[in-house]
Design brief:
Blueprint: E1 8-12, H1 22-33, E2 38-43, E3 55-60, H2 65-73, H3 103-124, E4 134-138, H4 140-153, E5 157-161, H5 166-181, H6 183-190, E6 195-199, H7 205-211, E7 219-222, H8 228-231, E8 249-254, H9 263-275, E9 281-286, H10 292-302, E10 308-312, H11 316-325, E11 328-331, H12 340-347, E12 351-355, H13 361-365, E13 375-378, H14 383-396, H15 413-434, E14 439-443, H16 451-461, E15 467-472, E16 481-483, E17 488-492, H17 505-522, E18 526-530, H18 532-544, E19 548-553, H19 557-560, H20 567-580, E20 583-586, H21 592-595, E21 602-604, H22 616-619, E22 629-634, H23 641-651, E23 655-660, H24 664-673, E24 677-679, H25 685-693, E25 697-700, H26 707-710, H27 715-723, E26 727-730, H28 734-742, E27 745-748, H29 753-765, H30 767-784, H31 787-801
Parallel strand pairs: 1-2, 1-4, 2-3, 4-5, 5-6, 6-7, 8-9, 8-11, 9-10, 11-12, 12-13, 14-15, 14-18, 15-17, 18-19, 19-20, 20-21, 22-23, 22-25, 23-24, 25-26, 26-27
Antiparallel strand pairs: 16-17
Helix pairs in contact: 1-15, 3-4, 4-6, 5-6, 9-10, 9-14, 16-31, 17-18, 23-29, 27-30
C-alpha cells in the first residue's frame, strides 16, 4: 500500500505481547514491516515490548470496576472442573466450557467502557486523526469501540476475529438465547463492517457470518499460516538437554491455560497411557493462564505430576525449538484444533494428535506438502480409549527423525498477509473512489434506464468529474451497485409501488432519509435532484455541507402523482423548493406555468437524446411488409395503452410494446392473446432507440385531462426528431401542438380509437409522406434541439454555479 493508503487505526482489547497472542502480533508487525503506518489503541496499563518503530501504541487504563465485579461474582461464576469423561459427546459440554460465561458482568461492560473512552479521545483529537484511512476492530473487545470511532472519523470499518465459538450456540440455542449467553460475542460478530477478516480455524466462522447477515464479498476467510522464515531456523534439542532419557518420547502441548483449551484432556490422556502400561514419555505443556494452579493440582491428583512438565510462557523461537524436538504434538481444544502450534508442527513434518472435528480442512487445502498420515485424528466419543490405542499403533512404526525438513508448499503467514493487505488495499481504493464524487444525481426510480439523468451525466462527465447516480429500486429487481463508462450507480431498496400514490409515503420517507445520510457521508460539490421525490433531502444536506443544489423538474409533482387532498400542500412545498434551489432546470419553457413564478436562476434542458442517427443498425430500415408501430415508456393508465392495442388490432398491424409500470400485466396479457402484439418488458435504452428507428411510427399518447400531460415535453418527442421518425400523439398537449405545427407526425383525439387507427393507417399507407415527416423532424433536431446544444447550456450553467470546481465548458457536439 502506498503512503496514502497506509494509515490504519487498530483498536483492540487483546494483549499485544511478544510471547503469546501470535496472531495479532504477527499480523500488525508484518503489515508494519511492509511499510504500513499503524496506530494501536490498547486497553491495558502497560506498553507492550519489542514493537516496530513505525508503530504508534496508546494504552487506556482498564476500568476500576473490573476486579470489583470479578470478586463480587466469583462465588456465582465458578467454572466446572470435572475432567472430561470419555463417554460423553461434545454437545453436552461446549456450553459450560466457554471462558466468558460472565460477559454480561465483565466482557460487555468493559467493551462499552472502552467505547466511551475512545470516543472522548477521538473527539478531543479529531484534527490529528484526519489522516486515518480505516479503523480496525481486532477481536471482540475492539469491535464496538472501532465501529464508534469509524463513524466519527467517517472512515471504513474493519473487524477481525481469530475464529468464533458462536456456531455451536446459534445452532443449538438460536440468536436470542445465544445473545443471553454470549452478548459480546454475538454483538461484535454481528456488527456490520466494510471488511470482516475471519480466521479459518475450523470453528465455521464463515457460516456464522453468513447466518448473521454479512455479505460474502465483504468477508476475508483464510487460515493463519506458518512463518517459514522462523521454521527454517528451528533446531531440535537433544533429549538430554530437555531432561529426558534417550528412549523417552516427548509429547508437547502449547496453549493458553484456560478452560476451553482443554488441557485437562491432555492430563487425562497422560494418566490413561500410564494405566495402559505406556509410560516412556513426558508431556511438556507450554503456556500460562488463569487455570495453571488448577491444572497443577489436577496433575498431582491424577498421579501424573512426574510425567507432566509445565514450561510456562516462553519466547516463540524457544517454543518452536521444543516443537521441533517433540515426537508428537497434542491439541484437544473445544470447537477447533487448528492452532498455530498445530500448523507449525505439520509444516515441520511432525505428527499431531487432534480431535476428529474437521478443523484442519482449510489449512490442508492450501498446503499440498502436508501429508495426511502426519495427522492422527481421534473422535470425541470414547476419546481416552481410542487415543491410547492410536498412540500405541503409531509407536509400532515410529522411528524418530532428528533431521528437520520444513515444508515449503504450505499456507504461510506471508500468504495470509498478502491476502489481508490486498483486501485492505481494495477497500481503501473503493472508499477513495466512493468519496471522490463531485456530483450526485438522485432520481426516485431504479435508473434502469432513466434517459434524462443518463444524458445529464454525459453532459458533465466529459470534463473529468466523477458522477454518482442514486436510484430508488422499489422492487429490488436490479443490482445494488453498477458502473457505466461515464458514472456510477447505487440503488437503495425501500419497498414501494409505481403509481402507488399515498401508499408509498412510508417508503418515500425512508428513501428521503437514506438520501440525507448519503449526502452527508459523501459531501459532494453538487446535488442534482430530479423531481420532488429527491429535492428535500438535498436542501436539508446543504444546511450541513457546502454544496450547490440543482432542482431538475421533469414532472410537476402534484400534477403527476396521486396525492388527493394533499395537492395544495405539495404545490406549496415544491414552489418553496424552487425558490431555495441554486438552479432550477425545466424540460420546456411552458413548465413555468406550473412553477407559478420565475426562479432566480433557471434553465431549459430539452429531453434530447445523443445523436446516433448514422449508426448502421439504425439506418438499415426493415422492408415495408415487416413494419410495425412502437410504444416504449412508462406503462401507466394515462398513456392510452388499451386504445393503442385496440387500434392496432382493428387495423391488423403489428405493435411492439416495452417498458414498466402498473399496466405491465395488461401488456403481457395482450401480447399473449392478440395477434401482432409483442411485449418486451423493460429494455436497455440503446435497444429502445434501435426498435424505434426501424418502426413505421412512434406512438406516444398523453391524457390531456392531466395538467402535467398537457405541458409534457417527453423523451419520445425528441427521440422521434433525432431518429427522423413520425410521431403519433395527442391533441391538446404541448407535444401535439408541436407535432401539428412542424408537421412531423399526426395528432389525434385522446381516447378516440377510430381516429387513432386512421392515423396509423395513413402513415403506414403513405411512405413518401412518412419520409417527409421524418426529414422535417430530423432537421428540427439538428437546428433547434441537438444534443450538443443541450450539453453546452448545461456545462455553462455548472461553470457559473461552481466556478471554482468546473473548468470552462468545451463547445460543440460530443
Amino acid at each position: 500500500m502506498d503512503e496514502q493508503k497506509e494509515r490504519l487505526l487498530v483498536i483492540t482489547g487483546a494483549p499485544f505481547l511478544q510471547a503469546g497472542n501470535q496472531s495479532i502480533r504477527r499480523t500488525l508487525s508484518g503489515l508494519c514491516a511492509r511499510g504500513s503506518q499503524i496506530e494501536i489503541w490498547l486497553l491495558g496499563v502497560e506498553l507492550p515490548v519489542n514493537y516496530p518503530e513505525n508503530m504508534v501504541i496508546r494504552t487506556f487504563r482498564k476500568p476500576f470496576f473490573l476486579n470489583f465485579f470479578k470478586q463480587l461474582l466469583k462465588p456465582f461464576l465458578v467454572r466446572h472442573r470435572n475432567v472430561f469423561p470419555h463417554n460423553r459427546d461434545v454437545e453436552q459440554v461446549l456450553d459450560y466450557r466457554n471462558d466468558e460465561a460472565n460477559q454480561w458482568f465483565t466482557g460487555l461492560p468493559v467493551a462499552l467502557y472502552f467505547s466511551v473512552i475512545v470516543i472522548i479521545h477521538t473527539l478531543l483529537n479529531r484534527r490529528t486523526l484526519k489522516s486515518v484511512r480505516a479503523v480496525w476492530g481486532y477481536e471482540r473487545g475492539g469491535v464496538l469501540p472501532a465501529k464508534a470511532v469509524s463513524k466519527l472519523l467517517k472512515a471504513p470499518c474493519i473487524t477481525s476475529f481469530q475464529g468464533t465459538v458462536l456456531h455451536f450456540y446459534l445452532q443449538r440455542y438460536g440468536t436470542w438465547k445465544t445473545f443471553l449467553k454470549l452478548p459480546l460475542d454475538l454483538i461484535s460478530t454481528r456488527m456490520k463492517a466494510d471488511l470482516v477478516i475471519m480466521t479459518d480455524d475450523g470453528t465455521r466462522g464463515l457460516d456464522v457470518l453468513k447466518q448473521l447477515g454479512h455479505h460474502h464479498e465483504k468477508i476475508l476467510f483464510v487460515p493463519n499460516g506458518v512463518d517459514l522464515g522462523e521454521l527454517s531456523t528451528v533446531q531440535a534439542c537433544a533429549k538430554s538437554d530437555l531432561g529426558l532419557e534417550d528412549n523417552e518420547l516427548l509429547f508437547v502441548m502449547s496453549t493458553r491455560l484456560v478452560a476451553h483449551k482443554r488441557v485437562d484432556r491432555a492430563l487425562a490422556l497422560a494418566k490413561a497411557l500410564c494405566d495402559a502400561g505406556f509410560d516412556n514419555f513426558k508431556l511438556f505443556i507450554i503456556g500460562d493462564g488463569n487455570d495453571k494452579s488448577y491444572l497443577l493440582s489436577l496433575a498431582e491428583m491424577m498421579g501424573v505430576k512426574e510425567k507432566v512438565v509445565f514450561c510456562g510462557a516462553v519466547q516463540y523461537r524457544q517454543a518452536l525449538n521444543m516443537i521441533g524436538s517433540a515426537d508428537m504434538i497434542w491439541s484437544f481444544q473445544e470447537g477447533s484444533n487448528l492452532t498455530n502450534t498445530v500448523q507449525d508442527a505439520l509444516a515441520l513434518g511432525k505428527y499431531v494428535l487432534v480431535l476428529d472435528d474437521g478443523s484442519l480442512k482449510g489449512f490442508l487445502e492450501k498446503s499440498p506438502d502436508i501429508k495426511l498420515e502426519q495427522i492422527l485424528a481421534v473422535p470425541l466419543n470414547g476419546f481416552l480409549e481410542k487415543a491410547v490405542k492410536t498412540i500405541k499403533e503409531w509407536y509400532k512404526d515410529y522411528s524418530p527423525d532428528i533431521k528437520l525438513q520444513p515444508k515449503t508448499e504450505v499456507w504461510s503467514w506471508e500468504d495470509r498477509l498478502d491476502a489481508i493487505q490486498a483486501s485492505i488495499s481494495k477497500l481503501l481504493e473503493a472508499q477513495q473512489s466512493k468519496n471522490a464524487y463531485d456530483i450526485i444525481l438522485t432520481a426516485a426510480n431504479a435508473i434502469a434506464p432513466f434517459p434524462r439523468l443518463e444524458r445529464t451525466a454525459k453532459y458533465i462527465a466529459d470534463p473529468g468529474f466523477h458522477c454518482l447516480a442514486v436510484g430508488w429500486d422499489r422492487e429490488g429487481r436490479y443490482p445494488a451497485a453498477e458502473k457505466t463508462t461515464t458514472f456510477d450507480i447505487i440503488r437503495m431498496r425501500y419497498r414501494g409501488q409505481y403509481g402507488g400514490g399515498l401508499r408509498n409515503l412510508y417508503g418515500l420517507f425512508r428513501w428521503n432519509l437514506g438520501l440525507v445520510f448519503l449526502h452527508l457521508k459523501l459531501r459532494p460539490k453538487v446535488i442534482h435532484a430530479y423531481d420532488f421525490d429527491t429535492i428535500i433531502p438535498a436542501l436539508i444536506a446543504r444546511v450541513f455541507i457546502k454544496c450547490k443544489v440543482i432542482y431538475d423538474i421533469a414532472d410537476w409533482y402534484a400534477d403527476s402523482r396521486k396525492v388527493g387532498r394533499l395537492r395544495p400542500f405539495f404545490d406549496k412545498v415544491e414552489r418553496w423548493a424552487c425558490r431555495k434551489a441554486d438552479l432550477v432546470i425545466l424540460a420546456h419553457e411552458k413548465r413555468l406555468q406550473q412553477v407559478g413564478f420565475i426562479p432566480r436562476k433557471w434553465l431549459v434542458i430539452y429531453n434530447t437524446p445523443e445523436d446516433i442517427y448514422k449508426r448502421s443498425e439504425l439506418v438499415e430500415r426493415k422492408p415495408a411488409d415487416n413494419d410495425y408501430f412502437v410504444y416504449v415508456g412508462v406503462l401507466h393508465s394515462d398513456r392510452g395503452l388499451p386504445q393503442i392495442v385496440e387500434a392496432t388490432s382493428a387495423l391488423g398491424a403489428k405493435l411492439v410494446l416495452a417498458g414498466f409500470g402498473p399496466l405491465e400485466s395488461y401488456c403481457r396479457e395482450a401480447a399473449d392473446t392478440i395477434p401482432g402484439i409483442q411485449f418486451l418488458g423493460q429494455i436497455p435504452y440503446e435497444r429502445t432507440l434501435v426498435i424505434e428507428a426501424n418502426a413505421v411510427a412512434i406512438i406516444a399518447l398523453y391524457d390531456p385531462k392531466l395538467s402535467n400531460n398537457r405541458l409534457a415535453a417527453p423523451n419520445k418527442l425528441y427521440e422521434a426528431m433525432m431518429l427522423g421518425c413520425p410521431l403519433i400523439t395527442s391533441r391538446e398537449t404541448l407535444v401535439g401542438e408541436l407535432v401539428e405545427k412542424e408537421r412531423i407526425g399526426v395528432a389525434v383525439t385522446y381516447g378516440d380509437v377510430q381516429e387513432l387507427s386512421q392515423a396509423m393507417n395513413y402513415i403506414r399507407s403513405n411512405p413518401e409522406e412518412r419520409e417527409e415527416m421524418g426529414h422535417r423532424a430530423r432537421l428540427l433536431y439538428e437546428t433547434q434541439y441537438s444534443f450538443g446544444q443541450q450539453c453546452e447550456k448545461l456545462r455553462k450553467a455548472y461553470q457559473e454555479l461552481c466556478p471554482d470546481h468546473f473548468t470552462e465548458c468545451r463547445k460543440g457536439d460530443r
